[in-house]
Design brief:
Largest sheet: 5 strands, parallel
CATH topology of the largest domain: Rossmann fold
CATH class of the largest domain: Alpha Beta
Helix content: 40-55%
Number of helices: 16
Strand order of the largest sheet: 2-5-6-1-7
Number of strands: 7
CATH architecture of the largest domain: 3-Layer(aba) Sandwich
Low-confidence stretches: 1-10
Strand content: 5-15%
CATH superfamily of the largest domain: P-loop containing nucleotide triphosphate hydrolases
Oligomer: single chain
C-alpha cells in the first residue's frame, strides 16, 4: 500500500509574493508602462556585458516583480543577443510555461518561506533560503545560457541572509544573474547596493494608469477612484479591485467624516467586517487609512493628484487635529499593523484602536 500523503503534500503552500488569488507576477504577460526600463534591460543583455546583479526598485505594486519575471522569460526564450526592447515572449512559448509553473531549471525564486510548524509565512527571507543559491549557481545552465535568481522582495532578507547574498555578489559565477526586487532599497546593506545596478520604476502617468485600470477593473464606475487610490501602481489597482477597496475606502471616509466624535454604529460595523478571516482585506484597510492620513499631511504643503471627492474630507480632518498629530497617527498605524501581522493579533481590535486614537486626538483639540 502506498504511504499516506502528508497534509503539506495535499494542501498548496501559500506564496509570500502572491496577492491572494490574483495571478502571480511570473504568470502575467500584460505589462503597463515602464518601456524605458524594459529597453534598459534589453540593451544591457544585447551588449554582451550584462551586469550580474540588478536592484529593481520602486513603489509597491508599480510592476517591479512583473518586470523581473518578464526579463527572465525574454532572456531565456530569445537569448541575450536577441532580447527585444519590450521583453515580450509568445504566450505559447515553452519557456513561458516552465517559468509559470516554477519548473524551469535555470530559474530560482527566493522569498519568505512557509513555516510548516506554525502554519504561516515567515516574516523574513531566511539565510537558508539564500544559501540555496550557492548550489543553484554552481551548476551550468541547461541550454548554455544564464542562471537567473529572483529575490522578491530583497527588503525581507534578514541581516544574515543579506550577508550570505554578499558572498555571491562579491564573486559572481559566470553567466549568473540576480534580480533583486526592492520597495525600499535604502534599507539594504550599502555593500549590497554598491554591487548592483539600480533600476528604479516610477509611478505610471495618468494615461498609462488609465489604460492599466481599464484592463484590470471590470466596473467602469469605479475606475477613476480606483486609479487615483492606486497612485500610479497597476499592481496596487489590481489588488484594490480584488479586495473591493473602493467600497472600503468610502466606508472609512464616512466614519472619519463624523469626527470629532466617531459614529459608533458605523465604526463597529466596519470593524466587524475587518474581523473576518481575510489578510488581504485587512492589509487593504491599513493601506487606505494610512494613505488618507498621509495625504492629510502632504496635501497641506503641496498639490496632490486628485482623488475624486476627497478634498472636503482632508480639509475636515485638518480642522479636527494638527498636522503633526496626523503624522504621528500615520506612523503609529504602520507600526501597529506590522506588530499585528507578526504576532497574529486581533484584527478587529487593530481597526478599533486606530480609530480610537484618531478620535482621542480630535477630542483633545475640541
Amino acid at each position: 500500500m502506498a504511504p499516506r500523503a502528508r497534509a503539506t503534500e495535499l494542501e498548496p503552500v501559500p506564496e509570500s509574493d502572491r496577492i491572494g488569488d490574483l495571478p502571480h507576477p511570473r504568470e502575467r504577460l500584460a505589462f503597463f508602462g515602464h518601456a524605458a526600463a524594459a529597453q534598459t534591460l534589453a540593451a544591457a543583455a544585447r551588449s554582451g556585458r550584462l551586469h550580474h546583479a540588478w536592484i529593481i526598485a520602486g513603489p509597491k505594486g508599480v510592476g517591479k516583480a512583473t518586470l523581473a519575471w518578464r526579463f527572465a522569460r525574454a532572456l531565456l526564450a530569445h537569448g541575450p543577443a536577441n532580447c527585444p526592447d519590450d521583453l515580450s515572449v509568445p504566450s505559447d512559448h515553452p519557456v513561458r510555461h516552465l517559468i509559470s509553473a516554477l519548473a524551469h531549471p535555470d530559474v530560482a525564486l527566493i522569498r519568505r518561506p512557509w513555516d510548516h510548524e506554525r502554519k504561516r509565512l515567515r516574516t523574513v527571507v531566511t539565510v537558508d533560503e539564500v544559501r540555496r543559491l550557492h548550489g543553484f549557481f554552481s551548476q551550468h545552465a541547461s541550454a548554455g545560457g544564464y542562471r537567473i535568481a529572483i529575490v522578491d522582495s530583497a527588503d525581507d532578507m534578514s541581516p544574515h541572509a543579506q550577508n550570505a547574498l554578499l558572498k555571491i555578489l562579491e564573486e559572481p559565477p559566470s553567466r549568473a544573474l540576480l534580480l533583486l526586487v526592492s520597495h525600499t532599497p535604502g534599507i539594504l546593506l550599502p555593500t549590497t547596493r554598491s554591487r548592483c545596478r539600480l533600476l528604479t520604476l516610477r509611478p505610471l502617468d495618468d494615461e498609462a494608469m488609465r489604460k492599466a485600470v481599464a484592463a484590470l477593473a471590470p466596473d467602469e464606475k469605479q475606475r477613476d477612484l480606483l486609479a487615483a487610490l492606486a497612485e500610479g501602481a497597476p499592481g496596487r489597482a489590481l489588488e484594490f479591485a480584488e479586495t473591493e477597496a473602493v467600497g472600503l475606502y468610502r466606508e472609512i471616509a464616512d466614519v472619519l467624516q463624523s469626527l470629532p466624535r466617531l459614529n459608533a454604529p458605523k465604526l463597529f460595523a466596519l470593524a466587524d467586517k475587518m474581523a473576518r478571516p481575510s489578510a488581504e482585506r485587512l492589509q487593504t484597510f491599513v493601506a487606505l487609512l494610512s494613505q488618507i492620513e498621509e495625504r492629510v499631511v502632504r496635501g497641506a504643503y503641496s498639490a496632490l493628484p486628485a482623488v475624486p471627492g476627497e478634498e472636503p474630507l482632508l480639509r475636515h480632518l485638518r480642522s479636527v487635529a494638527p498636522l503633526e498629530v496626523w503624522s504621528r497617527l500615520w506612523e503609529d498605524l504602520k507600526l501597529a499593523a506590522a506588530e499585528a501581522d507578526e504576532l497574529n493579533l486581533d484584527k478587529k481590535q487593530l481597526v478599533l484602536n486606530a480609530f480610537f486614537a484618531i478620535e482621542a486626538a480630535a477630542m483633545h483639540k475640541a
